[in-house]
Automatic annotation (TrEMBL):
Pfam family, one: BAAT_C
Residue runs in coiled coils: none
Species per Swiss-Prot/TrEMBL record: Labeo rohita (Indian major carp)
Stated family: Belongs to the C/M/P thioester hydrolase family.
Domain called BAAT/Acyl-CoA thioester hydrolase C-terminal: residue spans: 257-468
Organism ancestry: Eukaryota, Metazoa, Chordata, Craniata, Vertebrata
Domain Acyl-CoA thioester hydrolase/bile acid-CoA amino acid N-acetyltransferase span(s) in chain numbering: 66-197
The protein, known as: Peroxisomal succinyl-coenzyme A thioesterase
Gene3D superfamilies cross-referenced by the UniProt entry: Acyl-CoA thioester hydrolase/BAAT N-terminal domain, alpha/beta hydrolase
Domain of life per record: Eukaryota
Length: 475
């Protein structure tokens, strides 16, 4: 739940004043804004030919990752060509950038929210293009993916404006002006709680205030690990969200993770004093969707009020240990192919969708509203074909009215929170084979960015409808 005052609304402007001081307030630990300092000298600006100093503002300078910002450049010459450039150093010390070409209006102003970008890593009128089109700078390691690990610190982005239309060499040129913006995954007051109970490993995020709040059990996919940034954002929007770790070779053996593990996790969240026990949901991405569908259909313990599944499938029910599920998957590995760039196309492993009911989750048994979010160019999982089969199964069972399907053409498998940069392919560790590969996720950058923004809005609306405003799911 965001506020409209305090640290959310601060000008991010830097202007010609000799030595520029950057205010460094944070919601948590003190932030070192020197990241990338050798890449840019933030204390220097140059004036335009008419003597006025170009002024770059980014507002708000501190905001949630899923909030839009306003970027305005003033004091330019009329019809002056400029390049806007964003730079971020990841927690792995890799540099990411995006840039766009603009021409100022007759008043010497560029307003990104309404002016057209003429080229760069994005084009068109795109208010957040400097974030979602980010990519590793030339010469970076291959197969990178930008993911926030420590959600208690911000994603710090340096935004600069340069004279002319540039496409490279930003580190060798002094910008006309630079601003720093912080993109957070937690709103002020969100609590982060480590969960190590009954063998369950998770992180619980609680919204500010006394509660109680609706609960969301958040499951990521087959990449494993404890991924927190989606749950922290959900808590910032009023949900007690628990990011669950269920694939971690060091601590959790797949032979020991089964239905009981997910049921214990659900109960831990449900029994928390700040959680409304009768207003619970499950949210899964990729393999996490298979878990979500299986629990909703078969579990006697997990009885969610609604479920959200992103880029998933009902094939390979999770009704046994994860080790056994992965062993079943290995039988179909011959359907996995590799393209000419040595990128793995995984989606064929479940194609054609089996007709044998024993090989699929019986989604006809699901008794709560279900939202499926799918990508039209998903190269990792046949989620669109799965959704079509689920729709037929639910129609036959009489619970089709509980199903909502969103399909985004030209989006890829990894539909994440808004403005997360698009990754058509990235490095990936196959949990079952312990093998490093390059996985093809699919999607095109601009349609994928649209899918992430639209889907997130609809996911939040779906959760609010069924956890905040609906007394109970109706069959």
């Amino acid at each position: 739940m965001r506020t409209s005052d305090g640290p959310w609304i601060e000008s991010g402007e830097l202007h010609c004043s000799g030595l520029i001081e950057i205010e460094r307030k944070t919601w948590g630990e003190a932030l070192d804004l020197s990241s990338g300092q050798d890449y840019y000298d933030l204390t220097k600006t140059v004036s335009s030919e008419r003597g006025a100093c170009p002024l770059l503002t980014v507002q708000p300078s501190r905001a949630l990752m899923d909030e839009k910002f306003q970027i305005v450049i003033m004091n330019l010459l009329p019809n002056q060509k400029v390049t806007l450039h964003s730079l971020h150093q990841s927690e792995d010390k890799d540099f990411w950038e995006a840039y766009g070409h603009y021409v100022s209006d007759k008043h010497g102003t560029v307003t990104v929210a309404k002016d057209r970008c003429l080229g760069g890593t994005y084009d068109g009128t795109e208010q957040m293009g400097l974030i979602w089109s980010m990519r590793p700078i030339p010469g970076s390691r291959s197969g990178l993916r930008l993911r926030k690990t420590n959600v208690l610190t911000p994603m710090v982005i340096h935004i600069s404006v340069y004279g002319g239309h540039l496409s490279q060499g930003f580190s060798q040129i002094t910008p006309l002006a630079t601003s720093v913006t912080e993109r957070w995954y937690v709103t002020p007051g969100v609590q982060r709680v480590n969960v190590r109970e009954k063998g369950v490993r998770a992180t619980l995020f609680l919204p500010p205030g006394p509660g109680p709040y609706p609960g969301v059990l958040d499951l990521w996919g087959g990449g494993g690990g404890l991924v927190e940034y989606r749950s922290s954002l959900l808590a910032s929007h009023g949900f007690a969200s628990m990011a669950l770790e269920y694939l971690a070779p060091e601590e959790l053996r797949t032979a020991e993770v089964d239905v009981a593990y997910f049921e214990k996790a659900y109960q831990i969240l449900q029994n928390h004093p700040k959680v409304q026990s009768n207003r619970m949901a499950m949210l899964g991405l990729s393999f996490g969707s298979a878990v979500t569908l299986s629990m909703a259909a078969y579990s006697k313990v997990i009885k969610p009020q609604c479920c959200v599944c992103i880029s998933g499938s009902h094939v390979f029910p999770v009704n046994k240990s994860l080790f056994e599920v992965f062993e079943d998957m290995k039988k179909y590995m011959d359907r996995v192919v590799m393209n000419e760039e040595n990128q793995v196309i995984h989606r064929g492993i479940i194609l054609p969708i089996p007709s044998d009911p024993a090989l699929k989750v019986d989604v006809g048994k699901i008794k709560c509203p279900l939202l499926l979010v799918n990508a039209g160019d998903d190269q990792n999982w046949a989620s669109v074909e799965s959704a079509e089969d689920m729709e037929m199964m639910m129609e036959k069972a009489g619970n089709r009215h509980l199903l909502t399907v969103l399909t985004y053409p030209d989006a890829g498998h990894l539909i994440e929170p808004p403005y997360t940069p698009h990754f058509r392919a990235s490095n990936f560790i196959l949990q079952d084979l312990k093998q490093k590969i390059v996985m093809l996720w699919g999607g095109q950058t601009k349609p994928h960015a649209y899918a992430q923004e639209d889907a997130w809005e609809k996911i939040l609306g779906f959760l609010q409808q069924h956890l905040y405003f609906s007394s109970k799911a109706k069959l």
